[in-house]
Amino acid sequence: MVFNLPVRSMASPKCLLKLIGLAPLALLVLFAGLVLVTNFANFTDLAWAGGKEIVCASTTSTENSGLFAYLLPIFEGKTGITVKVVARGTGAAIELGKRGDADVVFVHARDAEMKAVEEGYFVNRRDVMYNDFVIVGPPGDPAKIKTAGSAIEAFERIASGGHTFVSRSDNSGTNIKELDIWKKAGLDAKGRKWYLEAGQGMEKTQRVADEKRAYTLSDRSTWLATKDKDRLDLAILFEGDPILFNQYGVMAVNPGKNPNARYTEAMQFINWLVAKEGQEAIGAFKDAHGNRLFIPNARLDAR
Fold first, then answer.
1. In this structure, are 268 and 278 located in the same domain?
2. Mean local confidence (pLDDT), 51-78
3. Tens digit of pLDDT for each residue in 113-160?
4. Mean of pLDDT over the chain
5. Where do runs of H (alpha helix) occur along the chain?
6. Which domain range does residue 69 map to?
7. In a domain, 124, yes or no
8. Are 231 and 151 contained in the same domain?
9. Could you give the CA distance from residue 68 to residue 285 in angstroms, rounded to a whole number?
10. pTM: predicted TM-score of the whole model, two decimal places
C-alpha cells in the first residue's frame, strides 16, 4: 500500500534555509564534543600515570647527601614512577617496610637486612653501593685518635680519657656500626658521663658533637655534604680501617606479607639502581668539591 503525503508536510524552501543555517552550529557542537572527549581521555591517561608512586624508606645519609635529589628525577623521567622518600635511621626504615608503610627499603646494615629477608618481610635484596664511616672530632684531637692503629683503638682512647662522644642512639646503620665497635673493644659506653645519646639523624648528631667539642662516628657522604653548610669546626681524625666499610642495600617489601605493596614498581626501581644506568648515575654523583660520595658495586643476583 502506498501513502501519498500531503504537500504541506514537505519542507518548504524557507524551512530548508533555516536547517541549512543551523548546520554550522551543529558542526561546532560536534567538534567541541570531540575535543572534550579527547581531552578527557588524555586527562585520565595522565591521572593514571601520575598514580604510579612508590614509597622508599631509606637511611638519612642518602637523603642528607643529596643522592636522591640527583637520582630520582632520572628514574622518574625514564619510568614515570614517582618515588616518595621517607628518611629514617636504618632500623626505623626496616620497620616501616615490615608494617607495609613502604614499598622498597634502601639502607645500610647488612645483617639487619638479611635477618628481615629471612623472616619473610622482604625479597630480592641487592647490594647497590658503598662508602665508609669516619670518626670526626675537635681538630686538636684531645684523645689522640689520629695515631690509633684501628677504629677499636680509637674508641678505647676516647673512653680511657673520658672524652665526650656523641652517639646517634637511633638504631640507624651508623649507630649499629658504632655499637659493634664498642662491643669489639670490650666496652659498654652506655650510661657513662662522657657518652651522650642524641637520638637524632646524622647531620643533627654532628651539630651536637660540634657544640660539645666531642667525637662522633659519621658516614663519609653526610660528612662531606654537610660540614661546610653547617660550618662545623670538626675534622676527620680516623679513617681507613676495614671495619668502617659501609655497604648499602635495597630490597622490596614482600607482597606475600603485604598485599598492598607496589611490588612491580618497586622492582622497576631496584632493577634500575643495580643496572648500568643506575650504577653510572650513582658513580657520577659528587659533592661541590668533586668528591664521589658513593661507589657503585651492585651484583645482579638477589640475596
1. yes
2. 93
3. 999 999 999 999 999 999 999 999 999 999 999 999 999 999 999 999
4. 87
5. 13-50, 60-64, 67-79, 90-99, 110-118, 151-160, 173-184, 202-212, 220-226, 263-274, 276-284
6. 51-131+247-296
7. yes
8. yes
9. 10
10. 0.80
